[in-house]
Write a structure and sequence with these properties.
5 strands; signal; 116 residues
Amino acid sequence: MKSILILVLALFSFSIQAQDTVKEGDVLRIGKASGENYSHVDFPRLNTLVKRGSVASYKNVVGELAVVESVTKNKDNTVKITLKLKSGKKFFNYLNSVSADYDKAIASGELKQAAY
């Protein structure tokens, strides 16, 4: 009886954990930076934006929808994702895609699940 209960609980916990994973094609909304700069989404620093002739601000990406292009799980169980803007535009008019640490970015609010 105990083994059946353990098996059911294990399957239940696995199904809950599987729902939290991200997959290619998922749409995420870009949130505000957790500090002055984004820590878990690999956006360029503000001084780099100025050197490229752009405005030194992240305001134009906040709230934008991004599609997950690829998902990579590292040996230390961190999930790295590559994002591309859903609109087809480039990030800051020069980056086709950016990478992010999925779990940390979600936890900090830098990325959010998009509600359609």
